[in-house]
Amino acid sequence: MNKIEHIGIAVRDLKAAGNLYEQLLNTQIYKIEEVASEGIKTAFLQTGPNKIELLEALSTDSPIAKFIDKKGEGIHHIAFEVADIQAEMARLKSQGFILLSDEPRPGADNKLVCFVHPKSAGGVLVELVQERIVIGE
């Protein structure tokens, strides 16, 4: 794993949380997008090399809505940048970690993603992220 790529924070109201974190971090949201496959709307902020992803549920049955219902707003996951997500998934699987998918999926901010189940990562939801390569660039 190369570095912490971002910290994901579950929020009830993306606009209100965005305003709060813009003031707190003294920076502006640089990207807002929906990830329909995950049932979320995200906003990204960056200060120096550090990124925060705010996550708002698009429906009451999305994973973020369920997380907030159970635990309230707050840190949802920590994401690590990897050079080769397939190789990292295979390595973790071979060491007994439980992955939440067998293949990486498209995620926010032009990334491929895979999550490691919190039960096998000391209670922390870990996300692996790799920059998506777009042919023709």
Automatic annotation (TrEMBL):
<dbReference type="InterPro" id="IPR017515">
    <property type="entry name" value="MeMalonyl-CoA_epimerase"/>
</dbReference>
<dbReference type="GO" id="GO:0004493">
    <property type="term" value="F:methylmalonyl-CoA epimerase activity"/>
</dbReference>
<protein>
    <submittedName>
        <fullName>Methylmalonyl-CoA epimerase</fullName>
        <ecNumber>5.1.99.1</ecNumber>
    </submittedName>
</protein>
<dbReference type="InterPro" id="IPR037523">
    <property type="entry name" value="VOC_core"/>
</dbReference>
<feature type="domain" description="VOC">
    <location>
        <begin position="3"/>
        <end position="131"/>
    </location>
</feature>
<keyword id="KW-0479">Metal-binding</keyword>
<dbReference type="InterPro" id="IPR051785">
    <property type="entry name" value="MMCE/EMCE_epimerase"/>
</dbReference>
<dbReference type="InterPro" id="IPR029068">
    <property type="entry name" value="Glyas_Bleomycin-R_OHBP_Dase"/>
</dbReference>
<keyword id="KW-0413">Isomerase</keyword>
<dbReference type="Pfam" id="PF13669">
    <property type="entry name" value="Glyoxalase_4"/>
</dbReference>
<comment type="similarity">
    <text>Belongs to the methylmalonyl-CoA epimerase family.</text>
</comment>
